[in-house]
Amino acid sequence: MKLGFNQATTLENSNLATDLELCEKHGYDYIEIRTMDKLPEYLKQYSLEQLSSYFQEHHIKPFALNALVYFNNRSEEDYQQLINEFKQMLEYAKELQVPYIVAVPLVTKEKIPKKDIKESSVAVLHELAELAEPYGIKLAVEFVGHPECTINTFEQAYDIVQTVDNPNVGLVLDCFHFHAMNSSIEALKQADISKVFILHMDDTEDFPTGSLVDEDRVWPGHGAIDLEGILTVLKEKGFDGPVTVELFRPEYYEMKAEDVIRKAKETTKEVITKYL
Q1: I need a surface site. Which of 35, 105, 224, 248 has the fewest CB within 10 A?
Q2: Phi then psi dihedrals of residue 40, to 5 deg
Q3: Are 101 and 67 spatial neighbours (Cβ–Cβ below 8 Å)?
């Protein structure tokens, strides 16, 4: 099983150049690059060509650009900006040979009917997939386990992806988000596992459904998520994709980045080697 690192895990105590050096040192196979902050920060000092060369010369490889945010139910003006942003991400992904772009649904306090959410999401994903096809890049939709996210359960996200019915459009299964809004293990058992493109590994403090936020995440295996249940199903269904650790814990940001990267790998491997 290949192991990936999501930069959210060292969001406030590192940068892309440092993350690459430390992930290479500690034997990670992949990195998910944050395009909203860490990549622009990197490009103020280095070039995209230098980043591409780094990946060519080292073991660690880019796995996903994370993320195209709030892709559905946007105004016409906002949507055009989104498309422009996506086109730029496609160029980055082409240069760096990144296979996936993560797409995050709209988070809003506005109440939007589920049929309107689905209609918008399906239409947008069709267009994004059409733009991405010449690049050979796939889209991974990441539902967010919070009441204010328009797509907040595995079941809802899977239904949308199935309706899109494009082999280049699938899902991010983040264990935290799966747990946070009580997504169903039974639904996961019934799913076509080839639609799960990316697996995010994490854990969380034991707070009620609907109240969890990213900052509640803890080291894998140190919290309340039924990781055994999720990973057992994935094993039974033959999932063999990389596992990426993604944490947003404020107290981990106070640690040295290398200590976080080392600990994240140790705890993730301890959990996943039992199942995958």
Answers
A1: 224
A2: -60, -40
A3: yes
Per-residue pLDDT tens digits for 163-214:
999 999 999 999 999 999 999 999 999 999 999 999 999 999 999 999 999 9
pLDDT in tens, 80-91: 999 999 999 999
Inter-residue contact 242 to 272 (CB < 8 Å): no
Match 């595995």 to its residue by tokens.
154
Alpha-carbon distance of 87 to 205, in angstroms, equals 38
Residue 234 near residue 193 (C-beta atoms within 8 A): yes
Query: How many whole angstroms separate alpha carbon 202 and alpha carbon 14?
Result: 19
User: What residues have CB less than 8 Å from 115, skipping those under 6 apart?
Assistant: none
Pair type for strands 203-204 and 196-201? unpaired
CB 66 within 8 A of CB 144: no
Q: CB neighbours of 129 closer than 8 A, spacing ≥ 6?
A: 139, 164, 166, 168, 169
Q: Residue 64 forms beta bridges with which residues?
A: 32, 100
Torsion 116-117-118-121 (CA) sign: positive
Could you identify the residue written with the tokens 């590994």? 201
How far is residue 22's CA from residue 271's CA, in Å, rounded to a whole number? 21
Residue 199, SS3 per DSSP: strand
262 close to 27: Cβ distance less than 8 angstroms: no
As a whole number of angstroms, the distance between CA 52 and CA 76 comes to 34
Distance (Å, whole) CA 244 – CA 6 = 6
Prediction pTM value? 0.98
Whole-number Cα distances in Å, 275 to 113, 118, 154, 227 = 38, 33, 21, 10
